[in-house]
Amino acid sequence: xxxxxxxxxxxxxxxxxxxxxxxxxxxxxxxxxxxxxxxxxxxxxxxxxxxxxxxxxxxxxxxxxxxxxxxxxxxxxxxxxxxxxxxxxxxxxxxxxxxxxxxxxxxxxxxxxxxxxxxxxxxxxxxxxxxxxxxxxxxxxxxxxxxxxxxxxxxxxxxxxxxxxxxx
Length: 168
What we know:
6-stranded antiparallel β-barrel; 2 helices; disordered N terminus
């Protein structure tokens, strides 16, 4: 998919998030339990580097904010806009309720520039939870949680981290 080519990874440091909605379903012939979490966050504009080619990041930020110290949105009447990237095989971590989901897909981004060079952002995270995890998440609907999203782990195939045992 063309939209997935701009950035293969998303990294979101621990941030406050509101869990807005949980859509539960079963997938495939095996009817594996799946869910989409709709999440809302406020993040620094630097997150835009995950959504655009390197040479366009500055121009995208320049288009959204005035070049003043206050970080005033250039078009305050601008409604939310979509970012079409899909980030696969990431990890969602919610430490305060001790949940960790690997292999998640982060998608359906909407964003709006805010004062202070901040970006109000909503997105969906597709997870494969247990029924107990769904229950724990449901307890936090419309509440604030601290979440992190980590990119897929990269394997070092260069051999630089390999140590050998000598016959000394």
